[in-house]
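## retry 2 of 3
previous attempt timed out at serialization; input unchanged, resubmitting
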Amino acid sequence: MGFKYDFSGWATKNNILCSDGRTIMKDAFKEQDGTVVPLVWMHQHDSIDNVLGHALLKNTAEGVRAYCKFNDSEEGQAAKLRVESGDINSLSIHAGRLKQDSRKNVIHGKINEVSLVLAGANDGALIDTLSFAHGEDSDIADECEYYPMVELTLEHGEIDYEEEHLEHAEEEKPKKEEGMNEGEEKKPSEKTISDIYNSMSDEQKDAVAYMVGAALENKEGEEDEKGSKEDEEDMKHSVFDAEQTRGQAYISHADQEGIISLAKTTSVGSLQDALEIYAQDNELSHADIAAAGGFVQPAEGVTGDVTTMFPEYKDVKPGAPELITNDQTWISTVLNGVHKSPISRIRTRHVDIRNIEALRAKGYKKGTQKKLTGNFKAAQRTTDPQTIYVKNALHRDDIIDITDFDYVSYLYNIDRMMLNEELATAIVFGDGRDDADPDKISEEHIRPIYLDDDLYTIHKTLDLETAKTTLQGSNTSAYFSENYIYAEAMIEAVLYARETYKGSGSPIMLMAPHTLNVMLLARDMNGRRIYNDVKELAAAFNVSRIETVEQMADKTRTVDGKTYKPLAIMCNFNDYHLGATKGGQITHFTQFDIDFNQEKSLIETRCSGANTRVYSAIAIEEEVKASGAEG
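## retry succeeded, writing output
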């Protein structure tokens, strides 16, 4: 076929029950054999950065295979590294225009894209062939060596419900009835009222009787006081209690059939008239009909009321419960942006030769002795790794009893999400737990950017009072809003700090959501906003983009007895070194405990982290005033 690919695997496999309750049948996507679709990350379609490459689809008797090629983007190469290392081994499809039979078997559809996912909806949708060992130009015509991949867990794939179409199995042809000519069939529209009534269940017949009884009451109007009392008394009895109904007038199923037969006669004409005639002939009141035909509030010792006929509750979103999480976007930005290294014990060494008078070159005067250049100091620091883990256990009884979604996969995804968030938080802000806490991630092993030494992170305090004076003297509030002053003070602090910034490339800014909103709401004297969107504000800060971090709200640091809170942190995360030796990368372990009947799970990594470039980060912070203090 001549298609160069990096890896291949099953985009989906046939005859396997997926976590969303569907089963994909053979040749459901046969029309896309040879089609090339985008390769994306986790079915995310909101940014072009999520497109990692493309996939060639091949329809087979077992399912659809995908031969995937990564693009040369930063995201594509980052994904390639994770597939090559075995961190990601699951695929999933995004399909639309689905056609299903009555058993939710997918018999036709269109695959819009193939996604790399942490876990897929289809058990068989796994990467099974890597081409990296054969070079970058492996061909689809070549049979590559199969590398065993560790199957982690499964989660829901995304399906386009808006384009879904249901196709029912072909209904059986109606049987020929007596008196009909050969080949002649009875049309559905020719069903009689009796046919329809006889096809009902007992509960449905009771419901019909209840509704027609209610219609009679609406037509008759209010009865006299005595009659009303008798009706009320009759309605207290359950028509399903033989002891209570014996010897009293009530509507049986035979009575209901009599009413239907009467309604079919041409002389009566309507079901409502038939009810009135039948009630008069059989000395039944309207209350008898209503009470016997439907459910009423039960008397003492009698169970069952109208609520027993209500349909069962159904999930708005079937499958696993939806997770309520903190903002996760910045976490992937941090973990994808830091420099990955196979070295976990790292050392940085620096010599600062700025502003050292003795190191200046000197002019020579004939006949004089030349002087030696002055001395300078070298600074170094070392960082050792620490193990970070998430451990959990599931009772096997719960795993078996929960059938509407994959409970094991669901918990694994939560554990992995927690590990990622904890690691990203430690890199940017620090662990936050007390030093005496045995579970603390030490700042000596994962050095946080915000708490780092001034040699690596430039700390700048926001000075609103000075900003007010600088803008318009002491009467600033008469000309500028508080939001405008705040925005100008933030931009001034960042730009002045960038004068000593030594980071590489184009930096990214992490910012508390409230801080960002304050600046976006800045207006001029005419009420017009200064910054129309986040991109304009990012350009004012001279950063590539701004990402909000809601977890920043409760972070602080204390220096010389003063407490500060971060407002924004700017850096290029590639200057931060995250190192793990072979075996120290994020790994998932599972084990079954037969003594306690539990499936135990451990996600663990052993790594170190430190900023390795001086003056490569800027932290804008604000002093936290004590309660009751001015300012």
